Amino acid sequence: MKSADARPSIVFCHGLWADGSCFSKVIPALQAEGHQVIAAQYGLNTIADDVATVRSALGRVSSPAILVGHSYGGSVITGAGTDDRVAGLVYIAALAPDADETSQTQQANFPKTDVFSYIEVVDGRIWLRPEAIDCFAGDLSEWEKKLVWATQCVPNPDLFNAKVGGTAWRSKPSWYIVAKNDRTVHPDMERFVAKRMGAKTTEVASSHVAMLSHPEVVIEVILAAAKAVQGANAAA
To answer: What are the φ/ψ torsions at residue 24 (nearest 5 degrees)?
Structure first.
């Protein structure tokens, strides 16, 4: 459905192990501000399929839309964000490959993070072992950590080896949230890609899942992005 409301829509894109429910602390606040919000849920089989799912989700909200990508979701929005219906990008502790990079080659340029010592490939999927959760979401309460682990997504091991099919941050305004205590995506990689894309950058003393441990920061950044996009559209 298309809306006459000038407020940008928000489309969330999850990462490898935390699905769309990881945005549950930020979605209600954005809805309360009058934004249409949807979280794309994709299969983590191929990057092309995941990008296609996000583009389908864009058809369910009003344009212009802001894509918000967490972790691997940053690769997804980098590919999907070239769509004309996308007006801005928000990255949360996220990957953001250039045209000649993949999610894997981008991470290979930085030190290996702790979480990869606690994963296993079983039945063609990458699983987090229970002890991995402190590397992934160490600043959450015990019950929240158990919930995140229990609801984990399980990606295809080949997912990181394909190019994303676009470089949206080269043409769309971008915002980036660096998780300073991240043990899943290296904080220095986050800073590098944020600087490379010229993003408006916010740093927070957070684990990898800043939207769960510091939702107020994530809400503030998304609302700032929405305000900037709305202002630019009004001036156009």
So the answer is: -65, -25
- Using only the alpha carbons of the chain, give its radius of gyration: 16
Q: Amino acid identity, residue 133?
A: I
Torsion of CA 69, 71, 76, 80, to 10 degrees: 30
Q: Residue 224 is encoded by which pair of tokens?
A: 């700032």
How many residues can be counted in the chain?
A: 236
Contact assessment for residue 92 and residue 71, using Cβ atoms and an 8 Å cutoff: yes
CA 206 to chain centre: 15
Determine the Cα–Cα distance for residues 176 and 155; give it in Å rounded to an integer.
24
CA gap 181, 161 in Å, rounded: 26
Q: Which residues of 67-95 are buried (b: 16+ CB within 10 A; e: fewer)?
A: bbbbbbbbbbbbbbbbbebbbbbbbbbbb
CA angle 105, 108, 109 (to 5 degrees): 100
All residues at 6 or more sequence positions from 23 whose CB lies less than 8 Å from its CB, including other chains: 12, 14, 39, 68, 70, 211
Q: Residue 2: is its pLDDT beyond 60?
A: no
Tokens 């920061």 belong to 217
Structure tokens at 137: 């979401």
The tokens for 34 are 């009058």
Q: What would the pLDDT profile of 126-164 be if each residue is shown by its tens digit?
A: 999 999 999 999 999 999 999 999 999 999 999 989 999
